[in-house]
Every structure is written in C-alpha cells, then in structure tokens.
Amino acid sequence: MNEFQVVIIGGGATGVGILRDLSMRGISALLIEKGDLTNGASSRFHGLLHSGGRYAAKDIEAAKECIAENIILRKIGGNFVEETEGMFIRLASDDPLYKDAWLEGCKAANIPVTPVTLTEARIMEPSISPNAAEIFLVPDAAIDGFRMAWQNIHSAKKYGAKFITYSEVVSILSENGKIKGVEVKNTLTGEITTISAEIVVNAAGGWAGKVAALAGLSVRVQPDKGTLIAFNRRITKRVVNRLHQSSDGDIMVPHGPISILGTSSISVDDPEDTSTSREEVEKLLRMGEAMFPDLRSNRILRVYAGSRPLYIPEGGKAGRGASRGFAILDHEIDGLDGMFTIVGGKFTTYRLMAEKISDQIAKKLGNTVPCKTATETLVDAPEEEDKEAARKYFPSFGLEPAVVRLGRVRFGRVAKNIKEHPKKRQLVCECENITLAEVEEIANEDTTHNLNDLRRRTRIGMGTCQGSFCALRAAASFYRVKKEKPNSLKELRNFLEGRFKGIRPVLFGKTLKETEFTRALYELSFNIGGSK
Question: Helices marked H in 145-276 — which ranges?
Fold first, then answer.
C-alpha cells in the first residue's frame, strides 16, 4: 500500500475518473480523500447531466464537450443516469436575440434541438408557465453523483486500483525538483503514513489551491458557492431550463422522487463554506416562480450548497463570467517534475477530464495503453432471470431501486440474504425502499464508518421524511453490524443535525410543523436535541 506510480488527491468526480482510467491502462494508482467520496461539489449540485445547451450561447467548447460526454455516460453509466430529457423555455419577457444565438450555438455544437408548441409543452409539463413564448427539447438528463463515484471506484478496483478515505495529505514530498510521494494523516486515528509515488495528481476541486500550496505552488482556484432547493416531489418529468442569460433559480432537475431548483453563484473564500440562508431561498423561489407559477405550493424538503472549483487564469473572470472549461497544469514548468493539477470543468465532463490528464501521465510514464473508459460499462446489471427470482421475496417496489443502487454483485448478495433470512426484507427506509439486508451489506464494507457514509451509499434519510423515521432504525441496524462500537446516540445526533442544517433556512409552513415533530420524537425519547 505504500508504493504507487501515481497518487491522486481528491475523491470527487474527477479523482475517481482518473483512478479508473489509469488502472485500466495498467498503471498502479492510489486515490486519497480526506473525507468520504464526493463530499464536495460532486455531490452538492443539481444532478444534471448537461446536453451542453446551457453553454451553447456563450461557451461553445464547453457545450461540445458536454454533448459528447452526455452520449458516452448514457452508454457506460446505465443506472446512474436517468434519461429524463430536457426542455428550454423562453418566456415572453426574455430577449429573443439570446434565443437566436443559442440556436446557432446548439447547431455548432451538434446539440439536437426540437421546437414544440406551448400546447404540446403544457401536456408534457403541466406546471410550466403559460407565459412561455418559445419552447425547445434537448437531450439533458439527471445523474446521481454518489452512485457515479462508487461505480467508478468498483470498476477501478477490478483493475487493481486502491483508494483510502478519511485520509488527508499533509505533505507533498520532493527531492531535487522531483516528486517522491506524500505524507498522509488518517483523520480517524491520527496515524501518519508515507506513500511513495512517481507522480502526484492534484484533483482536489475547490481545495486545489491549498493542496498545491503543500508543494510550494500557486493555483488560482475560486470557490463559487451555489445554493439549491430540494422539493418533495417531481414537479417536472424533464429537466427544465429558462432560455436566457444564465442566472439564479432558472433550472429545475427531477431527481428520483424529488425535484431540485438551482442555483446561485456566490464567490466565497473557503470551499468548506456550504452555508445557506433564507434570503438565498427567497431569491431562488422568486426566480423559479417565473417558470413555475405554483412553485411555492410545493413542500420544500431542504436547502443545500456546494462550491464550484472555478479556474481563474491571470486576467480571467470569476462567477458566471468564468469559463466552465477545464485546465491541466503540468508543474514541471514550475520546477516540480511529476506534479499535475487539474481544475475547472463540469461534473458532466469528468470522464473526459480524466482521459486528458491520464494521457499526459501515461506518456510521462512510458505507458502506451490507450484510454478505454468511453466504451466499457462501469457496473454490470443483474440478469433479468435473477431479478425475476428475487422479485418473489423482495418487498413491493423495493427491487428496482435496489438494482439501481447496488449493481449485479452486491444485489446478488442482498437478494441471497433476504431469501435465506426473510425478516431482512423489512424496510429501514420507506421513502427510498431500503431493506435491512441492504443496510447490512453496505455497513459491512470497511469504508463505511458512520451513518452519513451509509446515507451517501443508500440514500437513507434523503427522502421525504429527511430521517424522521429511518434515522433511528438505520442507527440500530448499522451499529449492530459494525465491529467497532462508537457512541451510537452521538452518531445519531450528528446524522440528524446534518439533516437539520438543510432544513433550518426553510422553517416555515408544513416544514416547521414536521420538523417540530421530529425534534420532539428524538429529544423526548432519546434526549437527542438541544441538550447534549
């Protein structure tokens, strides 16, 4: 575990993509992540697989990259992509000249565009505004960032790749201008380990500047916070964008059983700043109402934020004026051979970004194996006969979500567990149809350390009850499995507080009533609440 050709710092979309690409070329690689996978921008976004339409009028190269990767990810991603399709709406108040530039950009980027009438669109999406002037269909889709990351990891492991979570790089080691490795601190135990490597890749997203500084380098990355609102139902079947100059609250993405409205753009000093406010919520709702007049009649589940890692070259613009393209920096030019940084880009283009930097790394290592990530499926789906057999003893409506979350191998183990132990078909989480057998499967993995790790892998606590009913069941089931026995009530409190963080800015109406119910349930029954 202590000697690799390449060490990758950062377990977001780009990092896991690089790990998979390098390992498929036969290059020994280790990914290091200071928390759990996708704890940054790769999970704190609206879950959109771009068609490129959002950039067609202002960033043609980004648009071309997005449509090409959209097609590839639909082929290799399967169960982490939901093919919702997309709709662009120009309201009567929006500039028609922008629409003309947008259509020209879509044509230049080879983005398929189909015009539809308002009558047709209202049949497709009854909630959209009757003030729409022009409507077009594009191949947008929804994507699950958690699932994508873990599928890349599982694919990479088949080729010998390694990864460690809850491990922070505290020093980048070099000698005579050449990379030698890294020092890593286990954030759970405090243990320091030295790992040798020929190449270090800085794929830390919004933290890329801080990682570069460990090597005495400077990388201009501007964290750009985006706030989003999650509603408790699918307000639309399709991704719906407003056809105007990109702004706040002008895109709605259906994601599983919910819908996500986003997003804002606020430059912040620290990528750890995921704070949200009532003012941001109100601004997003006001903008969103232009496309969806009855928006406020929907129950808000929660609010959350993440920071885009915008690369700002010398003289470049920040915020919405910054390019959504990506940059690869070979720091040999700065006097440190074997150090690379990759910054910028979009979640949609993570695979392309990984391919481009892996090409450079492979060349430096003398490896001539071509990239294969665009053609090989990430995770095999269960056979239809296996699904039909499992349907006999799986809970109603629970089979298909489990197939999507687990993939063939883990689904097979969960199905076998339920068949042999029928009581394990009981649902720990009704909102997301998660069985006790699935909780046990994920809890047994050595990278699952706490309830929030379980949440990111299964979606427990992310449904309409936001943990009100499933949190206690999940904690009881989870810590019954784990060999180490932490303070389970403390962990349960941390889990609930994480859910409450996103609810706090929207404590009004039904949300306030339901939150009071949850608080009373846990504080009165388990002394989990204000008194610790």
Answer: 145-158, 208-214
What does pTM read for this prediction? 0.92
What stretches of 247-309 show up as alpha helix (H) in DSSP?
278-291
Whether the CA torsion 425, 430, 431, 436 is positive or negative: it is negative
Which domains does the chain possess?
Answer: 3-40+146-220+324-365 (3.50.50.60), 81-141+223-307 (3.30.9.10), 386-526 (no CATH)
Residue 6: which residues within 8 A CB-CB, separation 6 or more?
22, 27, 28, 29, 30, 197, 198, 199, 200, 201, 361, 365
| pLDDT digit string, tens, across residues 36-50 | 998 888 888 889 999
Q: What are the residues whose beta carbons fall under 8 Å from the beta carbon of 39, sequence distance 6 or more?
A: 11, 33
Contact (Cβ atoms closer than 8 angstroms) between residue 203 and residue 21:
no
Nearest-angstrom CA–CA distance, 345 and 379: 24
Q: In angstroms, rounded to a whole number, what is the distance separating the alpha carbons of residues 389 and 400?
A: 13
Give the pLDDT band (50/70/90) at residue 532.
Answer: very low
